[in-house]
Amino acid sequence: MSSYNPFNSTIFNKVIMAGTGVILVLFVIGHMVGNLQVFLGADVFNTYAHFLKSTGELLWIMRLVLLLCVVLHVYTSLKLKFLNMKARPEGYSVTSYVKSTLYSRTMIYSGIVIFLFVVYHLLHFTAFVTNPEYADYSENYGPVLQSSGMIDHSGNIIQVTEGEGIFDRHDAYKMVITGFNKPIVAIVYILAVLFLALHLSHAIQSMFQTLGWSGPKTTPRLMLVSKLIGWGLFVGFASIPVSVLIFGLGKGVIG
Question: Which of 12, 51, 71, 228 satisfies CB 3.0 to 4.6 Å to 6 for a cystine?
Fold first, then answer.
């Protein structure tokens, strides 16, 4: 007798997909708010980035939780697709899109694009695999020296010139400005968040319906909120590469 597998249950998969979706959407909103601090200047943005890095183990726990959510979200969405196909082995002779929209019909495809982009984004701005030179971007901050000198900071001997801070941290601001000054990189990011908007504009409403929030009055409102969040995230995220590439945000930081 085979053991019970909850992932063969449509309801179970929907609940897991919706639950992980809530976590991921909240993370994306928080991530955008953090990224928008780039408009407040290098010091504010680098302070924010340094704070995240200084959380150490907590940051890695958060990353592992998010990774687990992504894996479960992708797996359950594919599982539901398979279960639906299995329940209807014979396709309809005429395909009808009366109740479907562009957002719902492209969920799988936009999800794949988002997943591939997240992998690239981590290799680009987090692991520095695509651009190893980003790891060497640093800036001095903190109390300013009145004269040049050598300081010992956590076992590292650092030469500090007059007028510079005595502490050293990663220059995330320069990294972002440098990255988005490359047209191909900026365009890839803009297209990626466009797919994110398409995905979330349907996913958020569908997620709340799965959790039981639906009805003649509730559903239209959820659809509106879903689109506002999805396209709001697009505007927020896309504003950064657009501002760097077209309007010269951070001009003078690189070379």
Answer: 12
Q: Name, in order, each residue with C-beta under 8 angstroms of 194's C-beta and a sequence gap of 6 or more.
A: 234, 238
Per-residue pLDDT of 10-50, as tens digits, reads 889 989 998 999 999 999 999 999 999 999 999 999 999 99
Cα–Cα distance measured from residue 109 to residue 227, given in angstroms and rounded to the nearest whole number: 18
Answer with the residue of higher pLDDT: 251 or 163: 251
Tally of residues, the chain: 255
pTM of the model: 0.86
Cα first-last separation, the chain: 69
CA angle 30, 19, 191 (to 5 degrees): 50
